Amino acid sequence: MPSAAPQEAGTEELVRPGQSAGLLDVARERFLLKLLVRKEIRVRYRGSVLGLVWSYVKPLMQFGVYYIALGVFLNLRGSTPNYAIFLFSGIILVNFFVEILRNSTRSIVDNRDLIRKIYLPRELFPVSTLWVSAIHFFPQLAVLVGACLLAGWRPSFWDVALAVPAFVIVAVLAMGLGLMFGAANVYFRDSENIVDMILMVVTWASPVLYTWPMVERALGPAFGVYMANPMTVAVEVFHLAFWMPTTGGAAGDVGLPPGLLELWLPVSAGVSLAVLVLGQWVFQRLSVRFAQEL
Prior knowledge:
0% strand; mainly alpha; antibiotic resistance; cell inner membrane; 71% helix; 294 residues
């Protein structure tokens, strides 16, 4: 048998250029991700007097408007014990989703100059917006925890543990949609208008300002469709973790939706994961022409 031709000294196995592993590339490029997050923070607060303090000011202002309009004028605080905590625990979670989706949709277009010049995993840009949004979310969460402690909340392990899957579900759902619309926005700038409409609806499509029994009475058998929304389940789990322990058992009929943990939490996790997989697939298919289209 003839022997194989010897490999030339100094040669290495050729690697096909441009192959992307999707979100796995982000894990390999953690240093680049860190740089992008720092850049996003610096750009966002350049010339700002308050800087990250806006992470507290804006949600507190939003909370004040909703509390006065719904809690005082419509007297929802009369039928919902500790309505202020009920309201704020939902607001900060929805704001987290809104910030990720809005900024990830613009992330590729906003970084067009960098994308034209060098190759780096395109997923880094939407994922960096998730980390920036998390940096804004945790100060708001600290305010919520402080309010709960003042209201008599004594956190248990399970209370804290329940908040984790709710946070992850929202992050995964928003990232999946952000990848999808971020890629589509390179080709069709109408995508930003579609996202704006989604964000306009999302606060009212989840039990942030109202309680779930109101929806059950209005929808009847179709209530299951409402509960299939991962944002609805995440907000209700946040209520279970932070709001219900402060009511001292006075939540009554406003307590847990039927099947929240044993049925709807796994369903919402599955829906969010499916959206992430779809978003990654769409992003990879469209990302090959980003530099040309931008």
